[in-house]
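Please review this one:
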Amino acid sequence: MAIKTCLFDMGNVLVHFSHDKMCRNVATVAGAPEAQVRDLLLHSGLQWKLERGDISEREFHDRCQQQLRVAVDFDSLKHAVADIFRLNHSIVPLLAELKQLGLRLVLLSNTSITHLEFIQEKFGVLKSFDAITTSYQARVLKPHARIYEDALSKADCEPQECFYTDDIEEYVVAARNFGIHAAVYYETTKTRGALQNLGIPVSS
C-alpha cells in the first residue's frame, strides 16, 4: 500500500526542547531553588499531569504556588514553562515536500496545552498539519493505545498507509503494533531515507 499520511511527533522532531531550561525558568520567576522546582515539575509528575490533561493550567499554577510556597504571576509562570523550545529547521523543507506530494500530515505528540499554544504562536511549523492529536486532549500519554487510535482516526487512511516518526523508540514500537510504518527520528536525512524506502519521492 502507498503511504498517504505521515504522522510526526513534536518534541525533538519538529522542535527541540529542554526540561532543564523549564526548571531554570520556573526557578527564576518563582524565586525558588531549581532542585525544588525539578522535584515538583518532573519527579512528582506535575508536568505529566498537565500533559495528560488531568489538571488545567490554572490548577498547575495553583499547585506550583502551594508547593513552592510563593506567589507568582500566572502569565509569567506559563511563559517560563513554555519558553523551552527551538525550531528544528531541517524538518521544515521536508514537511513542505510532503504537502506538495499530496500527503496528509498529522501531529501525534505528548504535550500540554501550554506547550502546544506556545509553539503555535512562536513557530509556523504546525501550519503544515492537517490534524493534531495531543496527550492532553486524548487524556493519555504515549504509548497508551488510545492516543494512537485518536491519531489514526484523523489519518483518513488505513494504518498500513501511514508513516510515523518519533525520537523515542518505545513510541515507535507501539505505532508498529498498530500496523503503522514507523522509524525512530535521529536526524532529518535519515527520515528522508526512511520515506524514500517506502516509495515516497522526497529529495535526499
Observations:
- The first strand starts at residue 5 and ends at 8.
- The radius of gyration is 18 Å.
- Residues 5 and 136 are 22 Å apart (CA to CA).
